[in-house]
Amino acid sequence: MDGKLILARHHESQWNQLGRWTGIRDVSLTEYGLQKSKEMGKLLDGAKIDRAFSSGQKRAIESLSAMLSVRESRNVPVAQALALNERDYGEYTGKNKWEMEELLGEKKFKEVRRGWNCPIPGGETLKQVYERSVPYFLDTILPRVAEGESVLLVAHGNSLRVLLKYIENISDENIANVEFPFGAIVIYDLDDAGRMIKKETMKVESSVPA
Known about the structure:
Layout: E1 5-9, H1 14-18, H2 31-43, E2 51-55, H3 58-69, E3 78-81, H4 97-104, H5 106-114, H6 126-146, E4 151-155, H7 157-167, E5 184-190, E6 196-203
Parallel strand pairs: 1-4, 2-3, 2-4
Antiparallel strand pairs: 1-5, 5-6
């Protein structure tokens, strides 16, 4: 297909700065996150973007808006989708990640943070995020790409990881080793099923305590 899928993670939020698990808590970007989002937009200046999507959360909406604001061509239709929201961290929401690592131990902490089907009290597993985010991608975004549109999607660490899992056909075990870093932009050429044909990565230098 002629269209491209462009993925980007929102940049530093107020709770990223504090090292807190944010999840469904709706917090804004820091000034640093806003500036870095603009730098990410400059990486895409001149690139064809026909349509853009974000999650329904402020940090993703703000990052997308900042990315589009620095482009010469700003007239891009934008939509938000709750299906692309960050993972619900349940009872861990708002807790400091590094204090939780000490409490849970390194192995359990990695399972909770990166594992495929590790439950969180009152929250979601990564598998559950996959079950809401990937169908939205297949039903709503992929058809646009198939029609030749280049689509920019700005979301969150975990909702992007599950898209990578589908697009790159990553196993349940190996997804624990996959992260979508701050400042990164991934551009895909896809086949008709939404699987990767070609991948290009760009990145702005970022320092986020998350």
